[in-house]
């Protein structure tokens, strides 16, 4: 699976949009971009995923560049409860049994 | 969304004893489940892939005789840490493969004294 690069940490003011970048320049055509987050001492929580089109759900939006080499996760109105480590993972879901490999992620600190 | 549970949520044991951790998918069936380990201030490390009705596949460097995995049904996988030692103290997390993604359990914190 392709590797990803994320900034180690980011701050965001409460109520503002949090934009978390991810580079995945070696992504291949059948690999999806997945985002998970892990709040302290909990299991990871699925956020969103996409292949090449932008996606939006109740939690976040995912913007994938046209060449698919990078993406941005957007939390439109960050709250204190969004403070967590955010993982961007490129995953080939062939047969839905592929392994998720976690990098170091971005620690997002939402401040009042 | 799909729910995955783990039991126990935390356990303290003496060195040399064995500890069993259960992972259950509560509202869906999972042919494949995964076991991860996470040390403080580190990311999740995949330990093994658990397949229902067959032997688990272990990642390089993970001792299969020390970390016994059983996936006896489509909703239950167990991880047994045999002859636990203080260096096995960690946060153990399971996940279950859903239709499009993996759903994670809340984790089990193991402390070996």
Kindly describe this structure.
- The complex is a heterodimer of chains A (112) and B (113).
- Chain A has 112 residues and is mainly beta.
- Chain A has strands at 9-13, 18-23, 31-38, 45-50, 55-56, 61-64, 70-75, 84-92, 106-111.
- Helices cover 0% and strands 46% of the residues of chain A.
- Chain A is globular and about 40 Å long.
- In chain A, the strands form two sheets. A five-stranded mixed β-sheet of chain A has the order 1-9-8-3-4, with no helix packed on it.
- Chain A has no helices and nine strands.
- In chain A, a hairpin with a 4-residue loop joins strand 5 (55-56) and strand 6.
- In chain B, a hairpin with a 2-residue loop joins strand 7 and strand 8.
- Chain B contains no helices and eleven strands.
- Chain B is mainly β and 113 residues long.
- The N and C termini of chain B lie far apart (37 Å).
- Chain B is globular, with a radius of gyration of 13 Å.
- Chain B has strands at 4-7, 10-13, 19-25, 32-38, 45-51, 57-58, 67-73, 76-81, 90-97, 102-104, 108-112.
- The A-B interface holds A 34, 36, 38, 41-46, 49, 87, 93, 96-97, 99-105 and B 1, 4, 6, 31-32, 34, 36, 43-46, 49, 91, 93, 95, 97-107, 109.
How do the helices and strands line up, and which of them pair or pack?
The complex is a heterodimer of chains A (112) and B (113).
Chain A lengths: L8 E5 L4 E6 L7 E8 L6 E6 L4 E2 L4 E4 L5 E6 L8 E9 L13 E6 L1
Parallel strand pairs in A: 1-9
Antiparallel strand pairs in A: 2-7, 3-4, 3-8, 5-6, 6-7, 8-9
Chain B lengths: L3 E4 L2 E4 L5 E7 L6 E7 L6 E7 L5 E2 L8 E7 L2 E6 L8 E8 L4 E3 L3 E5 L1
Parallel strand pairs in B: 2-11
Antiparallel strand pairs in B: 1-3, 3-8, 4-5, 4-9, 5-6, 7-8, 9-10, 9-11
């Amino acid at each position: 699976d392709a590797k990803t690069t994320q900034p180690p940490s980011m701050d965001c003011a409460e109520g503002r949009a949090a934009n978390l970048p991810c580079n995945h320049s070696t992504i291949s055509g059948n690999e999806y971009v997945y985002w998970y987050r892990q709040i302290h001492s909990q299991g990871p929580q699925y956020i969103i995923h996409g292949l090449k089109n932008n996606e939006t759900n109740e939690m976040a939006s995912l913007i994938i560049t046209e060449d698919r080499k990078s993406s941005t996760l957007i939390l439109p109105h960050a709250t204190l409860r969004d403070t967590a480590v955010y993982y961007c993972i490129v995953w080939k879901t062939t047969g839905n049994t592929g392994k998720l490999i976690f990098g170091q992620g971005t620690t997002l600190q939402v401040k009042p | 969304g799909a729910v995955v549970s783990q039991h126990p949520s935390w356990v303290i044991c003496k060195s040399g004893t064995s500890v069993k951790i259960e992972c259950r998918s509560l509202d869906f069936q999972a042919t494949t489940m995964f076991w991860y380990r996470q040390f403080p201030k580190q990311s999740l490390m995949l330990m093994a892939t658990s397949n229902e009705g067959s032997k688990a596949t272990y990642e390089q460097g993970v001792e299969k005789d020390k970390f016994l995995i059983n996936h006896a049904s489509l909703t239950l996988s167990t991880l047994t840490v045999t002859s636990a030692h203080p260096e096995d103290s960690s946060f153990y997390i399971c996940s279950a493969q859903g239709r499009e993604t993996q759903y994670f359990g809340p984790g089990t914190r193991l402390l070996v004294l």
